[in-house]
Amino acid sequence: MADKLSFLVKVPLFSGLTERQLKQLVKRFISREYKAGETIVTQGKGGAGMFTITSGKAEALVEAPDGTKTLVNTFGPTDFFGEIALLDDGPRTASVVAVKDTECLILSREDFVAVLKNDADMGVVIAQELARRFRRFLSQT
To answer: The domain containing residue 88 runs over which residues?
Structure first.
């Protein structure tokens, strides 16, 4: 648990949380490995949680109706994706594929909501970071 805790402190989405809050969250993450070329999440499919890369590299691709794919982001250690799935259960907006062998920590929506029910302050800190991330994204488009 100590390794996960020291890692999560470096993840921007969680960097504003207290040690106590991080300890609540760290118990809820599961670890999963993906081989290079393996799809981690698929555009249009349901999203049940968020992913934080602990090692490796992945790319987010958006497929247009005509089948063309556009690279929209690259992820490495401490990067996260799928965070919107923590808030709703809508479909994934992009596919994410491992470019190298990649290990992720995964937090399900159900586990996230369960933790928030016991600590509303955590939700405020995370919502603020999500808003900052969304604002940065909008300023780039």
So the answer is: 2-136
